[in-house]
Amino acid sequence: MPADIQPAYRQASQPIEARVADLLGRMTLEEKIDQLHQCGIGDTNPNNLAARADEFRATYGSFIIGGPAETVLATRNAFQRHAVADSRLGIPALFGADVIHGYRTITPIPLAQACSWNPELVRQGCALAAAEAKAHGIDWTFAPMVDHCVDPRWGRIAETFGESPFASAIFSAAAVRGFQGEAFGGPGSIAACLKHYVGYGASEGGRDYVYTEISSQTMWEMHLPAFEAGVRAGARTLMSAFNDLNGTPASANAYTLNEILRRRWGFAGPVVSDWNSVLQLIRQGFAADGAEAAAKALNAGVDIDMADGLYRQHIAAQVATGRVQLATVDEAVRRVLRLKFELGLFEHPYTEAGVLTAAAPGATPLALAEELAGGSIVLLKNHGALPLVASAKRIALLGPLASNGGALLGCWTQQGKAAETPSIADALKERLPPGATLRVEPGCSIHSAATDDLTPAITAARESDLVILCVGEDAGMSGENASRTTLKLAGRQEELVQAVAATGKPIVLVIISGRPIEIQAYVEKMNAIIAAWAGGSRAAAALADILLGRRNPSGRLAITWPRTTGQIPLYHNTRPRARPGDEGEYRDAPTTPLYEFAYGLSYTTFTYSALRLDRAEVKAGDTLIAEVTVANTGPREGCETVFWFIRDPAASITRPLQELKHFEQARLAPGASRVFRFEVVPRRDLSFPDADGRRILEPGAIILTAGRSSATFSVVP
Ligand code: BGC
User: Fold this and answer.
1) How many CB atoms neighbour CB 453 within 10 A?
2) What is the distance of C-alpha 588 from the center of its chain?
3) Which of 78, 200, 306, 664 is at 20 to 30 A from 42, Cα to Cα?
4) Are the beta carbons of 272 and 240 closer than 8 angstroms?
5) How does residue 359 score in pLDDT terms, banded at 50, 70 and 90?
6) What's the CATH code, domain 364-567?
7) Which pLDDT tens digit goes with each residue over 651-699?
8) Which segment of 45-59, 205-219, 328-342, 566-580 scores lowest on mean pLDDT?
9) How remote is the CA of residue 45 from the centroid of ligand 1, in Å?
10) Are domains 364-567 and 606-715 of this chain identical in fold?
11) Are strands 140-141 and 94-97 parallel, antiparallel or unpaired?
């Protein structure tokens, strides 16, 4: 080949498949296996790369990059230079990071985002995160997390989109579209990674990294839909989970990976293991040693080995013994290379600093974060205390979360900055109406401190007209490895709530958390309750606007809010109980939740008409049109979400009491009304999977509900 002719893989004009084939044909087995290795950069000083050439080989396929935003780009480019300039074939590396709910600008935790019921805003939030991350040289986010979980003791429930598989599927697709953009690899587009595939959210007892027991039926109904939706939306990668799934760990599970994901859904991209999840096969008792773990994971369909290095250490020998076929290695490498070509890394391996690099978030991204934060706040109770009335002149802002901006960021926010994040106190001070005063006292710390002196807070409450009491969790209390045995407030916070309640002053309870909190011991004493979650960079501004009536709350719970920890699991889409009345109910507490799924109040009122159907019978190929008219009958503009649930009262496989099938949101002026419509497509909306994932559409009655109104129709052959 003449010296001036580039090899095919370097020619951008060649089809990607031809480039992949050409490059693969030039690679040694060792170079191939290195492409399947991923390691964390940690706080490695990139200037020392040459000295650490064994630890960070130029042929490694991908890196996880973190650290402060100011250092990310330079580190990334230095590692990239190493990959491109110091390796025989000059294959660029991929740089992945946990961009979960924002990069520099932090949007609410995913559980809160789901409470906005606004997939378009969620998409925009992910697009913003992608643009900021890409400006720092990140090619790939380990998000969205679309695990199904009904146990709020599990810290990672904060990262989920709530308990409805239907809603999770919608948000999964929205997030993928946001991160990846319209044109994959184009400006602001990074690769998404659906995680953790699959079943991790069923962790026993809410403990992390433990066994999961999931029936095939539940797997198809609850755990798989959000992954399938993300794959259909074009997600380029998936992450295999930590959990042992019914005896076959998810990171070595050929059925979920090779059979369902690849063969049935046609997923063509790479699957990355979770951090050390290949190594963990040994601890889980699924492999005797690293060699067996590596072979089992790769053979099951895990292409990239994150962190533990077992592929590097063992796959070559496994190929030699025939336990792993060379074709399996080649296929995994093809998936990795294809992604790199698609991302344009061969043409543009480096990222140049731009306006977004390390800069503090500007007004436009902050406005988006505020909109999403505002939409996700759920007003749980309001006995006239909100919005704050002009007579509430002396306001006591109490609780350990009143002045803690950092806690509002939530879990997984490495590049968000507490110092840049206004606290609730900051936001309220800025907006305080003339004549009103704010007295701020923490009362106690979040975690127990016997020495905390509650007195100043109680005195402040006594000397006030109204108390805003901010309690809950700090950022580290949810997310990974943050399980709890109780949903009660930590430390002396509950004692503080009770002591403040004893003053008899009106209280607005503001809960900042990554999960529902058990509040039943004092719920009756509160005049208003707000679930504000961990709402990100602009959470305080959005919350202050709601408190002061400058914003009308519209969030609705994406997760059931239990009364007590002992009720867990408690979720809307459970199956009917065998006996009626109170038979089977708890004897020491109500069986119902404190606040149901989809619950949330507004400062205005909405009235629903009776539900109308355009037919009483529907055939498989028909579309049934259901409508309900919703009127804003209250004093101010508001945003209403209409939730459409179905129930199939008699089926060959029992069906949940309620299944969310459609939701729609609209802003309505006072006095205005709007027709909300659900076009029911029987195969899509009324069928259900069997234990092998085959969808069944059965004749018989279906009950459709919107608001408190329902109607019955029949599916006919
Ligand atoms: C988490 C993943 C995360 C990965 C990389 C793991 O511990 O389970 O969600 O993407 O680390 O940081």
Assistant:
1) 12
2) 34
3) 200
4) yes
5) confident
6) 3.40.50.1700
7) 999 999 999 999 999 999 999 999 999 999 999 999 999 999 999 999 9
8) 45-59
9) 22
10) no
11) parallel
357-361, 453-457, 458-462, 570-574: lowest mean pLDDT where?
357-361
Distance CA 233, CA 177 (A): 7
Burial degree of 171 (CB within 10 A; 0-12, 13-18, 19+): buried
> For residue 159, which atom of ligand 1 is closest to its CA?
9
Partners of residue 397 on adjacent β-strands: 440, 468
Q: What's CA 72's distance to the chain center, in Å?
A: 24
Pair 312, 289: CB distance under 8 Å? no
Alpha carbon distance 528, 524 (integer Å): 10
**Per-state percent for the chain, helix, strand, coil, to nearest 5:** 35, 20, 50
Mutate-to-test residue for ligand 1 from 38, 101, 140, 142, highest number of ligand atoms within 8 A of CB: 142
> How far is residue 675's CA from residue 679's CA, in Å, rounded to a whole number?
13
For the chain, domain boundaries: 364-567, 606-715
Residue 338's CB: how many other CB atoms inside 10 A? 18
Q: Assess contact for 10 and 323: CB atoms under 8 A.
A: no
| Nearest CA-CA partner of 113 in 101, 103, 105 | 101
Give the count of alpha carbons within 13 A of 400, CB side only: 25
Give 222's strand partners: none
Where does residue 431 rank: exposed (0-12), middle (13-18), buried (19+ CB within 10 A)?
middle
Confidence bin at 237 (pLDDT 50/70/90)? very high
**Annotated catalytic residue within 274, 303, 474, 685:** 274
| Residue in the structure block whose two tokens are 């096969």 | 281
525 secondary structure, DSSP code: G
Question: Is 139 part of the annotated catalytic residue set?
Answer: no
Q: Do 245 and 198 touch, CB atoms closer than 8 A?
A: yes
- Single pTM value for the model: 0.98
| CATH level 3 topology of 606-715 | Immunoglobulin-like (2.60.40)
